[in-house]
Specification:
It is a single chain. The chain is α+β, with helices and mostly antiparallel strands. The chain has six helices and seven strands.
Length: 193
């Protein structure tokens, strides 16, 4: 459910829509490129911008070795989930960034919740990210702002996360299935050569 008082931007939003400008984006052609799927299948599916521009919420899908390894967070042990949370924590290479990572219980699949604070281009930034891993990819719902969040904003984000419905969980493919898929992808290349 999209909260009231938000501009909804997607790759399908016409470039001449006034919502781009009202949301604070002067160059809609440049911004719309962020909604294009990359070669790995990663994409920002939607961005919600508060009418008062006090916060943005990006909803995205990402693939990585880590997401393919965990595959579905509702099938991992507590120890594996704790290892995932630790992997998010900043290292010494990210000075000035503070982060808290914790588990968030969703009705269908566990989410991780990250509270991040740091500086970007000399501006203080706050971020709360809820994410999960399903069917080998991550889904993240990421709220960020240049001012601290209010309780109402945090509740709005949590309500958005709670409204997520996963329609189908797939079984993690076996190593043999993955090898067969890779072979079938390469088969036409072998035939051409």
């Amino acid at each position: 459910d999209v909260p009231e008082g938000m501009y909804v931007l997607t790759g399908e939003t016409p470039v001449d829509s006034g919502d781009w400008l009202l949301a604070g984006y002067e160059d809609s052609l440049e911004k719309i490129k962020e909604f294009e799927e990359d070669d790995s299948g990663n994409v920002i599916a939607m961005e919600l911008v508060a009418e008062d521009k006090s916060m943005n919420i990006a909803i995205s899908r990402r693939y990585s070795d880590q997401t393919r390894n965990y595959y579905n967070l509702n099938e991992v042990s507590d120890k594996e989930f704790d290892e995932l949370l630790k992997s998010f924590l900043p290292t010494e290479e990210t000075p000035g960034v503070t982060m808290q990572a914790e588990k968030y219980d969703h009705s269908q699949v566990p989410f991780f919740k990250l509270n991040v604070q740091g500086k970007v281009n000399e501006k203080q930034v706050w971020e709360i990210c809820y994410g999960t891993i399903i069917n080998g990819f991550s889904i993240s719902i990421d709220m960020y702002s240049y001012q601290e969040f209010t309780e109402e904003q945090e509740a709005l984000l949590q309500k958005l996360v709670d409204s997520v419905q996963v329609t189908k969980f797939y079984e993690k493919p076996t190593q043999e299935q993955l090898m067969l898929q890779a072979f079938l992808v390469l088969l036409p290349l072998i035939a051409i050569i």
